[in-house]
Write a structure and sequence with these properties.
Blueprint: H1 32-35, H2 43-50, H3 54-90, H4 100-149, H5 152-157, H6 160-202, H7 204-251, H8 253-258, H9 262-314, H10 320-362, E1 383-393, E2 396-406, E3 411-416, H11 422-429, E4 437-442, E5 445-446, H12 452-456, E6 459-462, E7 471-472, H13 473-478, H14 486-495, H15 499-504, E8 512-513, H16 522-536, E9 540-544, H17 552-566, E10 570-574, H18 578-583, E11 586-591, E12 594-599, H19 601-607, H20 610-621
Parallel strand pairs: 3-10, 3-11, 6-9, 9-10
Antiparallel strand pairs: 1-2, 1-4, 4-5, 7-8, 11-12
Helix pairs in contact: 3-4, 3-6, 3-10, 4-6, 4-10, 6-7, 6-10, 7-9, 7-10, 9-10, 14-16, 16-17
The chain binds adenosine-5'-triphosphate.
InterPro entries: AAA+_ATPase, ABC1_TM_dom, ABC1_TM_sf, ABC_transporter-like_ATP-bd, P-loop_NTPase, Type_1_exporter
Pfam families: ABC_membrane, ABC_tran
Organism: Paenibacillus chibensis
Length: 622
């Protein structure tokens, strides 16, 4: 079976394999494009990213903005009221008297303002979270929908891990930006402007001194954050490498144990585990240093403020109350600046993630309907291949001019050495790839001229590696036709001899099978996939026979099931069993992408050519 259809392949990490995108370190489990943590700003991409917020903007934004203004105004008013309380009620200047009433009034106003601020921020967080989650939902579902439609050659070129990372990690890394980032950015800008204006109004000299320290603070905070973020990204990368390895180790556990490679695997895992630990230690150390450093820098700012403030008070240019207000404004100043630095970091990460997400979303399925594609009417099943040439990669022909005429209802067996092109032919019939030249017609329709869905819905495929999804046995059969009733499901199961073993399972048809159906034997999985195909009732059936040897009883069951399945359909079978081959109407012997011989079993045996050799070889092994 070719890489394209075989779903049970090891991820392509090893060097030298086609479709690999190695990390620059050349290490396993690192994919080059997934390694890029940040990208420079790209406005058009940012606009595209934020366009995901558009559908919700009208609904939510006015509310969010109102809450934002309320919150900001209260935040800016409280320090000023505090200064009033000190200067006018507690310690008025010469001539004035203290006023408890005023103090109480101001305290009451401050209390109300705090309540408003609390309400405003609760609502803001609630609504920004709702918008953020909806945007992430839309993005994730757009991406998944698109990936479902992409053609085989897209997956040939990419390791599954890389696709997975985009739907999970990359989308998640935008979460913070959408839930908090955007709104915080607006709030912080408004707050900063407000604070600067107020500071300059209170005392322009002191205000200017504080404002001038802003760029310094911003640079220190941003630079530090960049280092911390990179350290955490490194931790995440090391962890996802562990996950990829784990995934492979678990999937391949049988092979590992069979070859007694456990120790080797443990050592490999240990190395990765240690790298992850070291990376975590480093990130955590940087993180711990960040808080105190920011506090010290902030403390220095406050020192300057009080030193200059005291000087101005002594020279009657400032009151004590205003100095207190000033210091709380400066405190409020830090918060938005810090967050802006954080936002800047988030944006850089978002650039890299969104670029990867959009790269997938923009990938056009290479196999798609032509603009003037017509629906393929209900077919009889006549198939014609006319000088079909196909190359997976430029310059390497997998099929070199195949001519084949199949009448409706015939069974065609494809045989030949490994790599001779058997799977390629069946891949082309369902149009998983487009042929390089020549023509394939079904009932006279060129398969490139008809709507893909109407073509594939009339072709049933049973693969060698029968994919069992996690769910019940019933769900797995129903995959063939989603609207089938329970009776229909049981009927097809009976027809292909699967009913008997299903009945014996602990929950019968409702038995849960884990992913890939590990609890079922190869033969049982085959029978299930036959039931699934029979339920779909396609006019054309493509079957890749399992090579694994099974006991004679199951073999007989499978042969009987096959007879039921093939009846009245045009079928192509990549045949391994002599019993199947013998009953085929036509046997096609492939060799290096060409038809070497064709005819029925008797005719080909008489020719004493390649086919005769293959059959002889099979018997020699028995
Ligand atoms: N996805 C792919 N990308 C590139 N080349 C491929 C791909 N799949 C198959 N090939 C190549 O095309 C040729 C025909 O492969 P194909 O899978 O059709 O052989 P096969 O007769 O089905 O072999 P087997 O019996 O081993 O399954 C081989 O040379 C193979 O290396």
């Amino acid at each position: 079976m070719s890489t394209a259809l075989n779903t049970d392949k090891r991820p392509q990490h090893e060097s030298g394999k086609k479709g690999k995108t190695p990390g620059k370190t050349g290490e396993r489990f690192v994919y080059q494009d997934d390694e890029i943590i940040e990208k420079p700003f790209n406005w058009s991409q940012l606009t595209r990213l934020f366009s995901y917020m558009k559908p919700y903007a009208k609904q939510m934004l006015p509310l969010v903005i109102l809450m934002m203004i309320l919150g900001t105004v209260t935040k800016l008013t409280v320090p000023y009221l505090t200064s009033m309380a000190i200067d006018k009620a507690i310690s008025p200047k010469a001539g004035g008297s203290t006023s408890l009433t005023m103090l109480y009034t101001i305290t009451a106003i401050v209390l109300v303002l705090y309540i408003i601020q609390w309400l405003a921020s609760t609502y803001r967080i609630k609504y920004t979270n709702i918008i953020g989650q909806r945007v992430i939902y839309d993005l994730r579902s757009d991406l998944f929908k698109h990936i479902q439609k992409l053609s085989f050659n897209f997956f040939d070129k990419r390791p599954a891990g890389s696709v997975l990372v985009r739907v999970t990690n990359d989308v998640n890394s935008l979460q913070e930006l959408f839930t908090n980032g955007v709104v915080n950015l607006m709030i912080d800008c408004v707050q900063l402007v407000g604070i600067v204006i107020i500071l300059l109004m209170i005392n322009w000299k002191l205000g200017l001194a504080v404002v001038l320290t802003v760029p310094v603070m911003f640079i220190i905070s941003t630079k530090l954050r960049v280092r911390i973020r990179r350290a955490w990204q490194d931790v995440r990368m090391k962890n996802s490498r562990i996950n990829s390895h784990l995934n492979e180790a678990i999937q391949g556990i049988r092979v590992t144990q069979a070859y007694t490679q456990e120790q080797e695997n443990i050592q490999f895992f240990d190395k990765m585990n240690m790298q992850s630990k070291k990376s975590w230690d480093r990130a955590s150390m940087l993180n711990q240093g960040f808080g105190p450093l920011i506090e010290i820098t902030g403390g220095l700012g406050t020192l300057i403020l009080f030193w200059l403030g005291a000087y101005l008070i002594q020279h009657d240019q400032l009151t004590v109350g205003l100095l207190v207000a000033f210091s709380s404004y400066v405190g409020n100043f830090w918060e938005p600046i810090n967050r802006l630095g954080q936002m800047y970091n988030q944006l850089l990460v978002a650039m890299a993630s969104s670029e990867r997400i959009f790269e997938f979303i923009d990938e056009k399925p290479s196999i798609d309907d032509k603009p003037d594609a017509v629906p393929l009417p209900k077919i009889k099943g006549d198939i014609k291949l006319d000088n079909v040439v196909f190359e997976y990669e430029k310059g390497r022909q997998a099929l070199k001019g195949i001519d084949l005429d199949v009448n409706a209802g015939q069974t065609i067996a494809l045989v030949g050495h490994t790599g001779s092109g058997k799977s390629t032919i069946i891949n082309l019939l369902s149009r998983f790839y487009d042929i390089s030249s020549g023509k394939i017609t079904i009932d006279g329709y060129d398969i490139r001229d008809v709507q893909l869905e109407t073509l594939r819905s009339q072709i049933g495929i049973v693969l060698q590696d029968t994919f069992i999804f996690s769910g019940t046995i019933r769900d797995n059969i129903r995959f063939g036709r989603l609207d089938a009733t329970d009776e229909e499901i049981e009927a097809v199961a009976r027809a292909v001899n699967a009913h008997e073993f299903i009945e014996k399972l602990p929950g019968g048809y409702d038995t849960e099978v884990e992913e890939r159906g590990n609890m079922l034997s190869m033969g049982q999985r085959q029978l299930l996939s036959f039931a699934r195909a029979l339920l779909a009732d396609p006019r054309i059936l493509i079957l890749d026979e399992a090579t694994a040897s099974i006991d004679t009883e199951t073999e007989l069951k499978i042969q009987e099931a096959l007879k039921v399945l093939l009846k009245g359909r045009t079928s192509f079978i990549v045949a391994h069993r002599l019993s199947t081959i013998r009953h085929a109407d036509k046997i096609i012997v492939l060799d290096h992408g060409e038809i070497k011989e064709q005819g029925n079993h008797g005719e080909l045996m008489q020719q004493r050519g390649t086919y005769f050799g293959l059959i002889e070889a099979q018997f020699r092994f028995i």
